[in-house]
Amino acid sequence: MKQNQKSIKSICLIFVFFNLLVIQSQENKPFLTEELSIKVDELMATMSMDEKLAQITGTRLRDIMVDGKVSIEKCREHIPYGIGHFCQFSSGLILEPEQLRDLVREVQHYLMMETNTKIPAIFHEEAITGFATQGATTFPQQIGVGCSWNPEIVKNNANSTAQSMRAAGATFALSPMLDLSRTAHWNRLEESYGEDAYLTSRMGVAFIKGLQGNDLKTGVAATAKHFAGYGTANDNAKELYEEYLMPHEAAFKIAGAKSVMPSYGKYKALAVSANPTMLDQMLRKEIGFDGLVVSDYGAVNLIYKGHKQAKNSAMAGAMAINAGVDIELSSPIAFPLLPDAIKDGLVTEETINKAVKRSLVMKAKLGLLDKNLKIGKDGPLDFDPPSNRELAYKTASQSIVLLKNNGVLPLNSDIKKIALVGPNASTYHCLLGDYTYQSMISFWHSTDFDPTNPKLITLLQGLENKLGENVEINVERGCDWSAPLESKIDTSGLGDDRLSKLKMLTVKGLPQPDLQKAIKISEESDVIIAAVGENLYLCGEGRERKGIRLPGEQEAFVEKLIATGKPVILVLFGGRQQLVSKFEDKCAAIVQAWFPGEEGGNAIADILVGNVNPSAKLCVTYPKTESRAEINYKNGYGNGDLVQYPFGFGLSYTDYQYSNLKIKSKIDINDERFSVSLKVKNIGDMDGTEIVQLYMSPIDKASTQKPIQLKGFERVKLKAGEEKTLTFNVSPEQFVQYKNNKWIVESGKYQLKVGASSTDIRLEGVIELKGKDVILENGRDVFFTMNKTK
């Protein structure tokens, strides 16, 4: 009877106070109000320690399933006290949308009916390329989307993702990835928006706003990851504060992100997940983050097992929660042992309660504790409607970078016979980056996926769709991606050779490549389209390649194609820049397609035939050598020996003229904004879109700032012959730097540069910030320019 009374009291408290929440825009709103704090404390007073610990751990659906179905007996055994999160709940399943929704409803019903607390779980999933579940739209990989320089399309894509996730009952995403990527050797570069903090911040803010919407009760909570400086050296305080922290800071202050994930890496030799300097001092005290900190999968126990910085799992859990990690994902290993850590004096119950409170507040914000909670959307569900496919197509079209063109593109009407050759000529495995549903189920679960659900358009299919019957397309792979595996598994974290299993999936049903046939059809063609590069097993988390040349024998294959004397159009697929320096001068055209998603084939084909004028520009520097040195355009390129194509570079089928730069020469350092205006004209014969870039360079030779920094950009659509005026409204605060442990805007002279890339500067002007240096006591608040085109 007492147990029942306790349950009834818990339910009543949930229903009474969580319905008092005022629906708020997520932008810059506090995570925890005073009223909510009091009510959460009342709820927690009814909870046992086991019930509290359940709310700050995650688990997998597989642990409560038998023969593909939810087992109530397993639920009672595995999650008797409830659970905080179900982790990557859909990416390992082969279920139709309605089946997925019904599964979520079944699990939530158990939690709300059979557990003492009656608290539902958060179902979370990956979302950088869309909802990672069968049948959902697969957008281009983030590295390609970064080359679109289009925050608006990022926002629209994320919003469509949120709608599908909510329809299935999911409320939380482990996206976006906001790390800066400065070497093509990093296997996770594909998940990033590139090397620049400003561009990454703009894209990340757009993603979060699109995913979360104006109210987390209808949107999906975004998680900014990986905090901070993952994939690069992060021990330089100036670099860390000015650049690696900026996308996260913008995500919290502008977009209202209330969840963050620390990286697997270290800061000052201490694991980030156990690092109070990074998670408490920087994140909470300095930046002012007031939300939820979720661990990366296995990162808490890694403090003990991998970093060897704890004596056991209980100590690792204590170190993490003391540093500021609120929830352990993806399996409850260390946090369930926190009572032992309390006995050993390693952690206090008060610290645990703070984490539990944040977990419950997040559930409240998401509407999971509302009375009459509705889980998912009733009726038939479509995760890939025509509107989504159109978004995927537009995104791919704007992500594909034209790196070289000697005039062969767009293909003209004289072309009657095309040789489409190379390992990526007619496969869908080159369309898909890591953390797509297709990649996750095939790599992590060694299970094949259905290329028709959603429909994946290969390059061959795209060309057939666009060229019609008047052009003959002859197809032959010519070579494999790589005869040896060419990449190796990280067995320390993954434990088996699932790469070989994935490789077998990618070649299943394909004939052996025929080099001689490829050369023969190439010699008989008007033009050669060589589709080369990477696929699912050659790039992604846990997959390390030996270098960044074209994999396997593909370099030699391309050279044989060039030797035919026919024009070679190189189409590069993959999750990173791959070297073309060996034959760049001999190719007629080079197209960087990245992993372009479900509509990739149609998008590439439309660019090749001229239905679409390419507009994308590189969000990373394109290397010329296999040097592992990090490249950051902000440091300058020196003699350029390491650089093939600069940051911001990308060709078009038309030409643009910049003119009439107008800037005030003297600016009060305390002014809110000042304007930089110019005219941009399309002086070619084809409609197009130019990405206009605004850079700043300090003039003072003693300056400690980077020699060139992106401070603004805008996509400007221009019909042939059309001219528009673009105005950047810049804040002096955007010139801030981290110096002597302070945020300071220094007076003095600065050069503003407007160009088509970081090295193709078309217009320049000098301003002087007048007045006393400004110290920003509370850090940065203004991050972006405000732009206007007319």
Descriptors:
single chain, 790 residues, alpha/beta, TIM Barrel, Rossmann fold, Immunoglobulin-like, 3 domains, six-stranded mixed beta sheet, five-stranded mixed beta sheet, 23 helices, 30% helix, disordered N terminus
Main sheet? Answer: 6 strands, mixed
Write the CATH fold name of the largest domain. Answer: TIM Barrel
What is the CATH class of the largest domain?
Alpha Beta
End-to-end C-alpha gap: 71 Å
Read across the widest sheet, the strand sequence of neighbours is 12-19-18-16-13-14
SSE class: alpha/beta
Strand content is 15-25%
Number of separate structural domains? 3
**Radius of gyration in whole Å, from Cα?**
27 Å
Tally of separate helices: 23
Name of the CATH homologous superfamily of the largest domain: Glycoside hydrolase, family 3, N-terminal domain
Q: Tell how many strands the DSSP assignment holds.
A: 33
Low-confidence blocks of residues: 1-26
**Average pLDDT for all residues:** 93
Q: Level of helix content? A: 25-40%
CATH architecture of the largest domain: Alpha-Beta Barrel
Protein name: Beta-glucosidase
Family: Belongs to the glycosyl hydrolase 3 family.
Organism: Algibacter lectus
Domain Fibronectin type III-like: 690-758
